[in-house]
Specification:
Two copies of one chain form a homodimer.
Chain A (H helix, E strand, L loop, with lengths): L16 H15 L5 H7 L5 H26 L5 H15 L8 H11 L4 H6 L5 H16 L2 H6 L7 H15 L9 H24 L3 H29 L16
Helix pairs in contact in A: 1-11, 3-4, 3-5, 3-7, 3-11, 5-10, 7-11, 9-10
Chain lengths: 255, 255
C-alpha cells in the first residue's frame, strides 16, 4: 500500500473561482463539437450540397428547441434580474415584432439559401430521430435539473465564437452554393454568444458554492457537449461516408 | 319515460365562434373577482391602511408568478408566432433593461407607497399560504394542461379593464394614503390587458375546434376565476371583519 501525504485542502473543499472556471473550460477543450470529424468535413469543403442540406435541416431542430428551453429556465426563476437577463436569449432567437426577425428566421434564410423548402424544414419531419432526441433531452434537462445546472448547461457558448468564425470562413471559401448573406445567423452569434456566456459564467461562479454544485455544473457542460456531439455522430452516420439514412429521414436530391 | 324531440344540432356539435365567445364571457359575468365583497371594501374605502397593505403584499405573489407562468407557456409552444406574441407578456411584467422597469417594479412602487419594506414584500414570507397555493396552482395549470387551455386561462383579462378603472377611481377618492403615482401599475394594465386579451381570444376561438376543447377552454376561464376569488376569500377571512390571521402571516402595524 502506497504511503499518503496529507494535503492542504480538506476533502470536499469547493474549488476557487478560477479553478472552477478552468474546470468548465477544460470540458470544452476536450469535448466541444468543434473537434467532431463532421465539422471538419463541413468547414473544409468536403461535403456536397445535399450533405450540407442535411446538416442545416437537422440543426434547425436545435434552433427550434433553444427558445423553448430558455423560456423553461425563465419559468423556474424567482429572481427577477436573472429572468430579465435571460429574456434576451429568447428575444435573440425568436426576435420581436415588428423589426427584429430573430435567429431562427436567420437560420431559415440559410436553409432557404440551400434550396430547402421552408415548410419541410420547420415540420422537422426529415430530421434524424437522434437529433430530435438529443435536443429534447436538452429542453428536459433545463426544465428538470437544479437551476444552477440549467444555467451551466448554456456555457458551451464560451466555446462557440471560434467555431462560428471557422464555419463562416470555411463555408464561404469552400462552397459555391454558400454566400455571405445566408451566414447572417453565425455572424450575429459572434456578438450574442459571448455576451450571454459572460453573464452565465459569472452567475454560475457566484452561485455554485459547494463542491457538489460546482462539479454538477461542470457535468452539465459535459452533458451539453455530449448532446451537441451526438447530433453530429448521427449526421455522420446517416450522411457522410457511405451513409446509412434511417427510414423516413431526409434523402438528399442534389450532390 | 318522457318523449324526446329531435334537435337541429347533433350532440357534440361545436359551438359557433360567437356562441363560444359568449360562453367565455358568461363565466366572467358570473364569477370574475370584481364581484367579490373584498373588492367592494377595497374600492369603496372601507379598509384601513393595514388591510390595504395586506392586499398589496399578497397580490405581489400573483405578480411574481405571472412572468413564470407566461414563460412556462412559451416553453411549450412550437409555433414561433405564438411565442413571439406571448413574449410581450413577460416583457410587460419583468420589463427589459435598461429602460422599461416592468409591471412588477410598478407593483413594488405601490407597496413602497403603502410603507411596506420591499425586501419583506419580495420575500413573500408574510403572504397567506392560501395565496401562494392559488398562484402556484395557476403556474402549474399553465405548465401541465393542454396548451389551448393554458392560453384560455389568460382570458380573465377580458374582464380586467373595468375593475382596474373602478380601482383607480375608488382608491384615489377614498384613501388619503393612495396617490396617483403609486397606481401606475393599473393604468398601464388598462392598455396592456385588452391587447393581450384580444390576441388570446382570437387564438382560442380559432384553435379550439371540438366541443370538448371549447368546453375545456370555458372551464379554464372558470378555473382562473376560482383562483382569483380564492385569494380574496383568504384576504377577507384573515384581514377583514374580525380577522383570523394565520400563524406567520403579515400582521398590520398601522390602521
Amino acid at each position: 500500500m502506497s504511503e499518503r501525504r496529507s494535503v492542504d485542502v480538506p476533502i470536499g473543499t469547493p474549488m476557487s473561482r478560477d479553478e472552477f472556471e478552468a474546470a468548465i473550460r477544460a470540458v470544452g477543450a476536450e469535448r466541444y463539437h468543434d473537434k467532431h470529424p463532421f465539422h471538419k468535413l463541413l468547414h473544409g469543403g468536403k461535403l456536397d450540397k445535399g450533405q450540407v442540406q442535411a446538416w442545416a435541416l437537422n440543426r434547425y431542430c436545435y434552433q427550434d428547441a433553444v427558445p423553448r428551453k430558455d423560456a423553461a429556465l425563465i419559468s423556474r426563476v424567482h429572481d427577477r434580474e436573472l429572468r430579465r437577463e435571460w429574456l434576451h436569449r429568447v428575444l435573440d432567437h425568436d426576435g420581436l415584432p415588428p423589426d427584429e426577425p430573430g435567429g431562427i428566421e436567420r437560420w431559415l434564410v440559410l436553409t432557404d439559401g440551400l434550396g430547402l423548402d421552408r415548410d419541410y424544414v420547420m415540420s422537422m419531419k426529415g430530421a434524424l430521430p437522434a437529433t430530435r432526441f438529443a435536443v429534447e433531452a436538452y429542453a428536459r434537462f433545463v426544465r428538470e435539473r437544479p437551476l444552477i445546472e440549467s444555467v451551466a448547461s448554456s456555457l458551451t457558448e464560451l466555446f462557440a465564437p471560434s467555431i462560428h468564425r471557422a464555419r463562416i470562413a470555411g463555408m464561404l471559401e469552400n462552397y459555391d452554393f454558400i454566400s455571405d448573406d445566408v451566414l447572417a445567423y453565425f455572424k450575429r452569434r459572434l456578438t450574442q454568444a459571448p455576451r450571454d456566456a459572460t453573464f452565465a459564467l459569472e452567475h454560475v461562479k457566484k452561485n455554485a458554492k459547494s463542491l457538489d454544485e460546482q462539479e454538477a455544473c461542470v457535468a452539465a457542460v459535459g452533458f451539453k457537449c455530449d448532446l451537441l456531439w451526438a447530433q453530429l455522430d448521427a449526421l455522420q452516420h446517416a450522411y457522410a461516408e457511405e451513409g446509412h439514412i434511417p427510414p423516413g429521414a431526409f434523402v438528399p436530391q442534389v450532390k
